UniProtKB/TrEMBL annotation:
Gene3D superfamilies referenced in this protein's UniProt entry, alphabetically: Winged helix-like DNA-binding domain superfamily/Winged helix DNA-binding domain (1.10.10.10)
UniProt source species: Liparis tanakae
A single GO BP: intracellular signal transduction
Name of this chain's protein: Rap guanine nucleotide exchange factor 4
Record gene name: RAPGEF4_1
Domain DEP: from-to ranges: 46-121
Any Pfam family the entry gives: DEP
SMART domains the UniProt entry points to: DEP (SM00049)
Annotated region (Disordered), positions in chain: 1-32
């Protein structure tokens, strides 16, 4: 009887881990993080519109995307609460896990490299640019949005590192 209850606990623990992994790859973002993505996108379009544009790589055009290193550079410059480049990577990773930001080829993990990422709002063909009112609202919400992401970014970075570690161990 004792071993049966241990097996039940292991099953529940495995289910929790499975649920956590599925949630990390969920493509329906939470309302808070969906709003955070919209605020960041609008702020980028307002402050550095050249960052979101069509890009070519190996004869293929990727519509309305950003470069990972440029996103990290931009975020580090926006607030003193973004302490390091790796902190910024974790903040973008949190948005990637929620499906608010996506790698153009759907690879997992945000990287501070010349890789292309696209905001969820830019996945549609004819996404309109933000209005002046939306830009103003995003400017007002930007400090609070960065603070939210600064708090959850380290956990997202750790999850990404642990996923990479488990893949490396499993491949050996």
């Amino acid at each position: 009887m004792e071993s049966g209850s241990n097996n039940d606990r292991l099953t529940d623990k495995d289910n929790m881990n499975s649920d956590s992994a599925n949630k990390a790859h969920n493509k329906i973002p939470s309302e808070k993080l969906q709003r955070a993505g919209k605020v960041l996108r609008n702020a980028i379009l307002s402050r550095a519109p050249h960052m979101i544009r069509d890009r070519k790589y190996h004869l293929k055009t990727y519509r309305q995307c950003c470069v990972g290193t440029e996103l990290v550079d931009w975020l580090v410059l926006q607030s003193a609460c973004v302490l390091t480049r790796s902190h910024a990577v974790g903040m973008w990773q949190a948005l990637l896990e929620e499906g608010v930001l996506n790698h153009v080829d759907q690879e997992l993990g945000f990287q501070d490299k010349y890789l292309f990422y696209r905001f969820l709002d830019d996945e549609e063909e004819d996404t309109p640019l933000p209005s002046e009112e939306e830009k103003r609202e995003s400017e007002e919400e930007l400090p609070e949005t960065i603070l939210l992401l600064a708090q959850i970014g380290p956990d997202a970075l750790l999850r990404m590192i642990l996923r990479k570690s488990s893949v490396t161990v499993n491949n050996k």
